[in-house]
Amino acid sequence: MDAIGEETGETVHLSVTRGDRVVQVAQVDSTYLLGTRDWTEVDVPAHCSALGKVLLAWGALALPAAPLEQPTEATITTLTGLRRDGARTRDRGWSVTVDELELGLTGVAAPVFGVHGDVVAALGISGPTSRLEGRLDELGRLLSAHARALSTLLRGSNHGSAHEKVVVA
């Protein structure tokens, strides 16, 4: 996480599930004056955070019950829309939120796979939309590479690809 923070300058997050919630277990703060807050004690709806969307897309979290909370106009508010977003997330290998939790806040996150090929965590970056919007693909690829390395460490060298188990929500 420190390496990602140093490379990007952005706030880096690691989250897991606890019941039906996304719980942030570690954070590396942004090097910029304008960054994001400490999210370790903040409970946000999974469907409008990049970390939560990873956990939803790979089935580590069940889809929430409708109706979905709508913090901003950009928030996905239908289960059909959330399923479609989950398919895009799995196809590209990372999730994106732009102004969905809060106007001006963007997040990108990638899945961390465990020993059995299931998603056990999400590794993400968040920051101001104005600074991240032109870098989403770059950040997604960077996070995916770091998440794959972490997955490999968790799985050991005797396991195959980290993308073996795909869950369709």
Automatic annotation (TrEMBL):
GO biological process, one term: negative regulation of DNA-templated transcription
Domain (IclR-ED): residue spans on this chain: 1-156
Gene3D superfamilies the UniProt entry points to: 3.30.450.40
An example Gene Ontology molecular-function term: DNA binding
Pfam families registered for this protein in UniProt: IclR_C
Protein name (database record): IclR-ED domain-containing protein
Species whose genome carries this gene: Nocardioides currus
